[in-house]
Amino acid sequence: TIVLMDTHWEVTFEHIITAHEKREGIFTSHELPRGMQQIPYEMPGDPELAFAVSKEAEDRDDTWVLASDDPYLPIFYGTVNVWSYLKDGGERWVSVGINQCAQTEDFLLLGQLIGEAVLSLDRKVVLLASGGLSHRFLPFRELRGRESSDPMKNIITAEAREADLHVLELLQKGDHGSVIDFLPEYRNVGPEGKFGHYLIMAGALGASACTAPGELFSEYEASVGTGQVHA
User: Label partner for 167 (CA 20 to 30 A): which of 16, 23, 135, 212?
Assistant: First the structure.
C-alpha cells in the first residue's frame, strides 16, 4: 500500500484519509488544466488501513481523523501525478489531506497514528510525502519569463533557496530532529502546506528519533519561484 500525503488536497475540520475500494475516473487539474488534462486513473485503495488510522484517533481529544469512502470525494494533482509515474499495477493507493489549521505537533501526531495503524496490520507500506520545499510563487507578470528550473535565478528569494538547501543537507544526514526544530524559521519562506506532507511521513517513522538518511533522486530546482526536489 502506498500512503501519499497530498499537499494539493487541503482539508480543514479534521484529518482526512481516503477509504475507497477503488478510485477511478478522468482527471483534469483545476490549477493547471493546460498541463494536466483528461488523465485516466484507476487505483485500488486500502479501506482496512484507512479505517485503522481513524480508529487510532477515536478516543483521543487532541486530534480527529475521518476515513472517507465517499465516491464523489475529489482527487488531486499531488496524487494523480505521482501515481502516473510510479504505478506498478499491484499496489493500493491511499491519499491523506493536509489540514490547513494543523500545526507541527498535529502533523507529527497524525503520522504517529498512521504508523501505529500500519503496525497493527499485515502490510508492507510506502509513505510518500507529495509536496514542495519553499513555496512562494513569482508575481503573475513575471511567470512566463522565469519558468527555467535554474535555482540561482528563479527561486523567489535567496533566503528561500538557502533555507531549502539547509533542509536538504539535514535530510541527507538523516537529522530529522533538526529539520523539525528548524520549522519555525523555515516557515518564514513558506514551505508548501506548512511542510505537513513531510511531517506526517516523519511522524510515522519516529519523528525526531528517526535517523533514516535521505537520498536525492533529482537536483534541487526552481518552479516559477518555488523550490522542488525528489528525495
Answer: 16
Axis-axis angle for helices 176-186, 158-173 (nearest 10) = 160
First to last CA, the chain: 19
**Average per-residue pLDDT for the chain:** 97
Q: How far apart are CA 30 and CA 148, in angstroms?
A: 23
How distant, in Å, are the alpha carbons of 85, 124, 160 from that of 1? 16, 6, 34
For residue 120, the one-letter residue type is S
- The whole-model pTM stands at 0.97
Helix (H) or strand (E) holding 52: helix 47-56
Quick check: 57 and 64 in contact, CB under 8 A? yes
User: Pairing between strand 126-130 and 2-11?
Assistant: parallel
Q: Which residues pair with 213 in a beta bridge?
A: none
Q: How far apart are CA 7 and CA 190, in angstroms?
A: 13
pLDDT in tens, 152-205: 999 999 999 999 999 999 999 999 999 999 999 999 999 999 999 999 999 999
CA distance 131 to 6: 7
